[in-house]
UniProtKB/TrEMBL annotation:
<dbReference type="GO" id="GO:0005886">
    <property type="term" value="C:plasma membrane"/>
</dbReference>
<keyword id="KW-0472">Membrane</keyword>
<dbReference type="GO" id="GO:0015098">
    <property type="term" value="F:molybdate ion transmembrane transporter activity"/>
</dbReference>
<feature type="transmembrane region" description="Helical">
    <location>
        <begin position="109"/>
        <end position="126"/>
    </location>
</feature>
<feature type="transmembrane region" description="Helical">
    <location>
        <begin position="78"/>
        <end position="102"/>
    </location>
</feature>
<dbReference type="Pfam" id="PF05631">
    <property type="entry name" value="MFS_5"/>
</dbReference>
<feature type="transmembrane region" description="Helical">
    <location>
        <begin position="205"/>
        <end position="225"/>
    </location>
</feature>
<keyword id="KW-0732">Signal</keyword>
<dbReference type="InterPro" id="IPR008509">
    <property type="entry name" value="MOT2/MFSD5"/>
</dbReference>
<feature type="transmembrane region" description="Helical">
    <location>
        <begin position="328"/>
        <end position="351"/>
    </location>
</feature>
<keyword id="KW-0813">Transport</keyword>
<feature type="transmembrane region" description="Helical">
    <location>
        <begin position="391"/>
        <end position="410"/>
    </location>
</feature>
<feature type="transmembrane region" description="Helical">
    <location>
        <begin position="171"/>
        <end position="193"/>
    </location>
</feature>
<feature type="signal peptide">
    <location>
        <begin position="1"/>
        <end position="30"/>
    </location>
</feature>
<keyword id="KW-0812">Transmembrane</keyword>
<keyword id="KW-1133">Transmembrane helix</keyword>
<feature type="transmembrane region" description="Helical">
    <location>
        <begin position="132"/>
        <end position="151"/>
    </location>
</feature>
Amino acid sequence: MDIYTLNLTALLALCGVLFLLQRQTQKSNANAPTNSKTTRAPSQWPFLSVYTLAMASDWLQGPYLYSLYHDEHHLPPALISTLFTTGFVAGGAAGSVIGAAADRHGRKAACLVFCVAYALSCALTTTGSVPLLFAGRVLGGLGTSLLFSVFESWMVTDFRVRGLAARGADLGATFGLMSSLNSGVAIVSGVGSEWLVGWAGTRKAPFVAAGGLLAVAAGLIWSLWSENYGETGGKEEAKSGGSGGSGGQKSETKLWAIVSNPKVISLGLASTIFEGSMYLFVFFWTPALRSVQSSSPQGLPYGVIFASFMASTLASSLAFGMITGRGLVSYTTLLLGILATSSLCFLLSAQPRSEQSTFWVFCLFEAAVGMYFPCMGYLKGKLIEDGVRAQVYGMLRVPLNVFVVVSLLFTGDGDAFGPVFSVCSGLLIAACGALWAATANQEAVP
């Protein structure tokens, strides 16, 4: 058994232990004495099943996107880089408008648009026509912005409208479960995509399978979800006579009040820097490990390493539920720790010293990722009002995409990981300081 297989085995064993501990805690809570007013927490599986399918469609195609461009479509590296940049630019441009459109016309409708747009992106990516490939990247950028804004927005609003907190559900636990499901799906999808390519003999197979998953997700959304709107949509729009009425002015006033809130600004800064650094990590971890490779002359086992990263994410998301469920720290304090830990990981990775130490530092960063998303999701859910939720979530993705595009334009090739990781480390510490300054000595901080 080689060292990376051994590492993955150890991480999966840790996930198993944490899962059993989490189940034991849940059983203990279920057996605890309760008063007559306590009710069984309602199911959120209509949302979670769709979310799982949507994330699986994303993870299936991710590992083979570059390979499909390069090895089957035979595109030059410069054109591939332009295609990737096009996706981020499209995502940034879409983020400025899709949130407001989802609030007005409905978050359920926006999720259906995601399924259609992402399925078309998968179909166009399998073609060999360069113009169609660019169209696919534009639709892919639009789909990514929708995936990471309107789904979460629909869920949080539905959680409040149905009064799930009063009926025993916990929003933080839901975000923790979403993170765990996402990590598990990533591991399965990575193995599944490799099997599909081997079975079909083409790198187009994962994209076709992703389209099928999106069709199933669309059917579940259509049949199981109810619609919810922001203040400028649905019944509110009919009452105000459209966006030009008082409802629209009220919404604009509330939007400005939210986006100018120092807590929201600091969260936006933290999300831009952390998620932007995460995207850069995805681009640079391979050359960083390759620069200190000593384990195998045949090359690194990238699939096993990727699975190890996802196992680290899964382990931390399981630990997140245990930490927050017991009230050990506040969500804001936890986010500060995540940002500080991530900064340290990038600092240590800027000048890697050995292959295994670099690998485990990367696993530690992936563990931070596993806690970051449920923690950030909970904080945004608490600080941003339902009426403009999708719009604010979309707006927060605009600086993220700008950050990634600008970073990729200035970083050059993959060998520049040292300076990039050093800059990410400094920016993460700055984000940590900004969040601390915005929340220190503040009351009612989640």
